Amino acid sequence: MTTSTIYHIGIDLGTSQSSIVTSTGKRVSTKSCVGYPKDIISQKRLNKEFLLGEEALKNRLSLNLIWPLAKGVICDDKKSKEATQLILKDLIDTTLPSINSTDKVYASIGVPALASVRDKKTLLNITKDFIDKVLIVSEPFAVAYGIDRFDECLIVDIGAGTTDLCRMSGSVPTEDDQRSLIEAGNFLDREIANAVLKKYPDVQLTPQIIKFIKEKHGYVSDSSDPVIVSLTKMGQPGSYDITEMLHESCLKLSDAIGQAVQSLVADFDPDFQETLRNNIIVAGGGSRLIGIDRAIEKSLDNYGGGKASCIQDVEFCGANGCLKMSQEMPTSYWDKI
Amino acid sequence: MLKNNIVHISTSKLIGATILPNSILLITGIVIWKLWRNKHSQLQTTTDELKNEIEYLKEQMNEIQTEKHKYLPQTSSSGQTDATQIGLFEFLIEDNIQLRKDA
Question: SS3 sequence, A302-320?
Fold first, then answer.
């Protein structure tokens, strides 16, 4: 008689990047995109029905590329739902290759702080055929859970689609303790692209170029070395100074985050505001923005100052928290869903 | 004979004035180039060694993370009572049950 095994997984399903961590110790992160061959020639060349993640990006000229998530949730169309299924299935197949038909998969999946009921149900529907039990949790809360921070602290999770903030105060956070902003990575990409094209109208930009500039040079600190990037104009490469416009674009993001942080501090119990201000934890891909922690601290100057720190394991902190929740939840609770 | 001596001396002086300094320059150049080449290859070797170290450290980090996740179920969460965790899980489960009921 074969005994079945319960595998626990934590998934951070992001607009730009999705990560999985499993109870077997495997962890994988991938771009949240799927590419389908454009025509019969592409199909013949690629010899696959679809490509995922980095492979899809690499061959994007031959593919119709789909980014099925927007603002952290699955887009409301059939193609996006199918694409999300493919991404999730691939993540699970890659990290749990030797799973038997009798084994069970229990997953904890992070969603934006203020994701709607509809968005959560979509996630449940698309996962029901390949994940036995799914626990939907708030993403910033999962980050807090993963680092054992249930006391007075403020999680700022800067993703691509949304920036989610969650105020922890020793109990389960309510809706009032959470904020979800559209000012996030993709917003910043748009701002940078608009600013560059405004000054240099004829340069050739793609989402990948903008993303590269943002990740390599993006900064909100007061000073920086000049940012000179190589871009093409009618096919001819040239050097373009984007120092100031890059800084201004990044400040738009940090200012929006600063305002949200201020509002969460302002309406907190005044006896604990100082503790909250001095325990700000910045997570997500956007935490890599140079000087973002200092910018958030600066936004609290009129509130008595603050202390922000960036989390170390940026790529997997959300998924780690989801996995921890999944593993620590007693089986009797899992049996209820 | 005097003429021969003059030619001889002049030739020697010409050779001494041109070939000798150029030889010194050439030898100096060769020595400097060899020193630079040695230094460059030492730096290259050091860079390669450092790169290998970085790769090794990355592998170790991955191994540590893997072991940490395997170890995770055996440890209890620090700084939180069981009652608090139970309350938290109850809330999460209720929220998820409600989600399914609303279908």
Answer: HHCCCCEEECCCCCCHHHH
Nearest CA in chain B to A324: B72
- Continuous segment of H or E residues that includes residue A155: strand A153-158
To the nearest whole angstrom, how far is the Cα of B95 from the nearest Cα of chain A? 9
- Which of A51-65, A246-260, B43-57 bottoms out in mean pLDDT, i.e. has the lowest? B43-57
Which chain A residues touch B87 with a CB distance below 8 Å? Answer: 171-172
Q: Does B90 touch chain A (CB under 8 A)?
A: yes
For an interface test with B, the pick among A126, A147, A337 (most B C-beta atoms closer than 10 Å) comes out as A337
Which pLDDT belongs to residue B9? 84
Q: So what's the ipTM on this one?
A: 0.80
Closest CA to A109 of B102, B87, B92: B92
The answer to whether residues A170 and A286 belong to one domain is yes
**Alpha-carbon gap: A73 to the closest alpha carbon of chain B (Å):** 16
pLDDT in tens, A183-227: 999 999 999 999 999 999 999 999 999 999 999 999 998 888 999
Q: To the nearest whole number, what is the mean pLDDT of chain B?
A: 80
**Alpha-carbon span B17 to A64, nearest angstrom:** 76
Is residue A213 domain-shared with residue A257, that is, in the same domain? Answer: yes
**Do A278 and A324 share a domain, yes or no?**
no
Pairing of strands A104-111, A6-13: parallel
Same domain, A289 and A325: no
Q: Are residues A327 and A228 in the same domain?
A: no
Is A172 in Cβ contact with B89 (below 8 Å)?
Answer: no
**A139 assigned to some structural domain:** yes
Is A210 within a domain?
yes
Distance between CA atoms of residues A57 and A66, nearest Å: 10
Q: Domain limits at A184? A: 149-310
- Do A197 and A153 share a structural domain? yes
How many domains does chain A contain in total? Answer: 2
Same domain, A304 and A320: no
Q: Looking at the predicted structure, is the pLDDT value of residue A77 above 90? A: yes
